What does this fold into?
Amino acid sequence: MSISSKSAETHSTVLNFLSGGGEMGERIRSFDWAATSLGPISTWPQSLLTSVSIMLHSTFPMFIWWGEEMIQFYNDAYRPSLGNEGKHPSALGQKGGDCWQEIWPVIKPMIDEVIQGKSTWNENQLIPIYRNGKLEDVYWTFGYSPIYKEGGTVGGVLVVCTETTDAVVNLKKIEEDENKLRFSIEAAELATWDYDPATNKFQGNNLLKEWFGLVPLEEIDLSLALAVITDTDRPLVVKAIEAALEHTSGGNYNVEYTIVHPVSKKARIVKAKGRAWFNEKKIAYRFNGILQDVTEEVSSRMAYEESQDQIRFASDRLQLALDAGEIGYYEWAIENDEMHCNSLYKKIFGFSDAHDPTYKEFTSQIFPKDLSVRNNAVQRAILVGGVYNAEYRVRHPNDELRWVKSFGKAIYDEKGKPVKLIGMILDITEHKQFAEELSRQVRERTAELKQTNSDLLQFAHVASHDLKEPVRKVKIFSGRIRDEFKKELPVKGHIYLEKIQHSTDRMLSMIEGVLMYSTLSNLTQVMEKVDLNQVIGNIQKDLEILIEEKQGMIQMDKLPVIHGVPVLMYQLFYNLINNALKFSKSNVPSRITITYEQEKISSVWYDRITLSDNGIGFSNDQVDRMFDAFIRLNSKDKYEGTGLGLALCKKIVDRHNGNIFASGEKDSGAVFTILLPLKKIKS
It folds into this structure.
């Protein structure tokens, strides 16, 4: 047999050895291996032929690198990992370094270890490869094993692998979903539990353990959790758990209850939702779910229910008040002209309860002369907002006119458009009649009182004027007796005459006071500018001797120029300063302080003048009567006076539309405050 015939026979035998193997078997057999460093198939070593044969007939993805250039082989099971537009079919017979340029720095060190006789194993290893027209992240689980040649040296590397990209991606997605779920649970502040009915143990997240005051153990006995539930709710929860663990219930669990933290004693209302899972024997093997803190929600719901009760109660009370007060109530929808009212509203307008009058029918009952009053009030309320208030007359079908008082308010929508008018109405006919009668009686009584007061003042004036003459004669003739019969009179006679003289002086002083007091209201002096600084200066000159006797001193601020009656302003401050000197303490120099400031009271500005002293003072319980006529707070034997000084002061201040009030303390001086309006006062 020739050499060529023997070579052909060998090649045929080798091809038979590599028969089958699907598409990749055909490609390997038809490949031009003579163009590679491996040479024709007939020259391959038996170890390579055997390895390639095993690879081709395996349904598990396999790959072979052979020789120093790492010439490549792979089977049909491996081919999908190379992609549709990737390295297949060019990878067959290609050098490893040329084929896997993008990952060669990663896999070459592992190949080198295998050439040294070491096997490797990697699971879910990320090795990006170029396929499907792009570089893709691909995960592999693979093992590299050495392929020994006949001489015992390593001739190549067998790769047994499977692509796990889908599994890894799905696993990552599951982990991502779990993380999202965990985040959602944490963000929603939900507590979770997982209960094992067989062991009576459950696991919970940190929030659940925090709420229940449980130690952070991995598994917890159910009884510890139940102990935290209030005594009232615990039987309800136990019953709900038992029902959920019954297969016939469908495993659903939904219950709301209250827990109390064992340490802080803080109560928390929680809503539990869960489900039990059953095996083929209809026995629950797992029970899990979530807990939500609904304390605020329940509190809000209870508050809302309470508010609704209060609204209903308020509505009932309003209706009771409307009925008791005989008040009519109405609502008028402006746009569609719908009118709703109670029966009393209809009655006030003269309609029967069975009839439902329109808004126009109601307004047609208003007395024509009063219609504009009512309409203007309503229009103002609609245009500018606020409450309207109007009184007008309503004509009943029997032509009787009844007075009514109507008040209400316009309601606006979110755009500021008036949509409704609500209000109430009250029949005030009897009130009007009573007010008119009362007004008539007041006018009559006022006229009578004015006449009586005028008569009394005239009598006081005449009486005081007529009394002056006989009192003056008593004073004159008692003085003559004292002077002409001075030597003949005994000592007691002189004493008695002095008492008569003193009494007549007091009598004249009282008569002058009565005359001044009785004529003060009838003074017709015109208000003019009065410089109070000059007034006080003139008073100091007139009281010069008394001030010297009392070692007195007057300290004052710069006082204003006011509008008033000069003679009355003089009399006012004269009486106050004279009283301060008169009621000073013995052996203590008299000190009088006058201060001034402006003060705003109820949107009106006043001149505020305060006069204070260091005299004997008075008790505050005497203030209420000290401005009354003829009232004396001190002994008339020790302190002279008529009891009219402060009454005159009060009347003078009233004449100027002002106010005067006093305060003091026994043995600590007195304070008199005068308030005079800033604006000009007409007489």
Observations:
- The chain has 19 helices and 25 strands.
